[in-house]
Amino acid sequence: MTDTQGLFDLLQRGTSSCHVAIFVRERLAEHGFSELSMKEEWKLERGGKYFVHYWGSTLIAFTLGESYQEGQGFRMGAAHTDFPCFKIKPNPEIVTKGYGKLNLEAYGGGILNTWMDRPLSVAGRAALKSGDVFAPRVEYVDFGRPLMTIPNLAIHMNREINKGIELNKQTDLQPILQYVKDEKDSNYFKELLAEELSAEPEDILDYELTVYCREDPCIIGGKEEYVSSPRLDNLTSVYGLMEGITTSVRKEGINLAAYFDHEEIGSRTKQGAASLLLRDVLTRILQSLGAEGQGVSKEIYRSMLLSVDVAHGLHPNQTGKMDVTNQPVLNEGFCIKESSAQSYATDCEAVAVLQQICLEGRIPFQKYVNRSDLPGGSTLGAIASTLLPIPVVDLGVPILAMHSAREFMGRNDLDSLTECIKLYYKL
């Protein structure tokens, strides 16, 4: 059975998009990757391994073949570091009859009722005062313990709850943080955050803080064949790309893995897949290797991208929600995702490349398409391909309960995804 310890380490430490990027950064450093800055000149060497950590929550890693020559192009993969959650608003303290609560906003399209009655914690980053007004001091924080919860209303006071209740994002989803005896004590969260940061409350200028489900991943099933965990979307893909870029080596060409933030809210940010960051990194790499003029553009157009994100598995209690002839089952292989509407960025030639990789490595795979009358979500692949018009394939492990506070997957599917990515980077 597939070893899940590496994934579990990421799931437990990847409690915000920033912490996901930090985890990947540490693993890359352990494998000999050197850090670069977009604000400085690059001097790259063939055979080298490098990464860029951008704005805290996005990271791009790449390896240069020892025998790289112009015309060999890039083999790229991309995943996202964010996940549906809640974010803490500025001035978040709300006191109601002694209950100190927090004012939150939903991030991404989460299944809201799954967040009720769970232990919640807080992670992210804060900007503090510094000696240079144009360079605030940025600190990362993860409370790492159950800190608060959003209680359900008792069934005795809401007899219709099992018929389905719509939750109001503003009024129904305020977690209880602590008992507040004096309602004039309005800075209890800022003081708690300052204590965790070993800073003074007045030094905290702003923050980007994620409220996450503080529950550990676990293996379940009669044969221990499944995983239940928060954040399987999309840390399974982050893990697969991380394993691929750190263990697969090619003497020719360039391998690259991109970990973007903000996919759950559309990717249209400076560290999202809809930014110019990836194309700028590709250009910078090629220029450092001596490419000029049209040589840069030609090399980019000789490349390929895997958009790695989770897929929907067949739900055994809701089989009618799935396409009638394509029904991926957990533990029978990762999914290649296709859509004629191009919400998944695929074409038959690119899919054929991936299928041949799987045939070469005897790697199980399945195909996922949406039911014709039930459009699904989208991925960063379609967005990235508008800026990089190259072959793109969407793929990922099938899961159940996507966007729930806890999601559900088959252990073997992680192995098939990881092996496919490794072979993609190696052949």
Task: Detail the topology: elements first, then pairings.
Elements: H1 5-13, H2 17-30, E1 34-36, E2 49-54, E3 58-64, E4 74-80, E5 85-96, E6 99-107, E7 120-128, E8 137-142, E9 176-179, H3 188-197, E10 204-213, E11 218-220, E12 226-229, H4 232-247, E13 254-260, H5 277-288, H6 294-300, E14 304-308, E15 311-312, E16 334-337, H7 348-361, E17 365-368, H8 380-387, E18 392-396, E19 398-400, E20 407-410, H9 411-426
Parallel strand pairs: 1-2, 4-13, 4-14, 14-18, 15-19, 16-17
Antiparallel strand pairs: 2-3, 3-13, 5-6, 5-10, 6-9, 7-8, 7-10, 11-12, 12-20, 16-18, 19-20
Helix pairs in contact: 1-4, 2-4, 4-9, 5-6, 7-9
Descriptive report:
This protein has 427 residues and is of the alpha/beta class. β16 (334-337), α7 (348-361) and β17 form a beta-alpha-beta unit. The protein is 25% helix and 27% strand. It starts with a helix and ends with a helix. It folds into 2 domains: 5-83 and 231-426, Aminopeptidase (3-Layer(aba) Sandwich); 85-213, Aminopeptidase i, Domain 2. A 9-stranded mixed beta sheet has the order 1-2-3-13-4-14-18-16-17, sandwiched between helices. A 6-stranded antiparallel beta sheet has the order 8-7-10-5-6-9, with helices on both faces. α7 crosses α9 (411-426). The protein is built from 9 helices and 20 strands. It has helices spanning 5-13, 17-30, 188-197, 232-247, 277-288, 294-300, 348-361, 380-387, 411-426; strands at residues 34-36, 49-54, 58-64, 74-80, 85-96, 99-107, 120-128, 137-142, 176-179, 204-213, 218-220, 226-229, 254-260, 304-308, 311-312, 334-337, 365-368, 392-396, 398-400, 407-410.
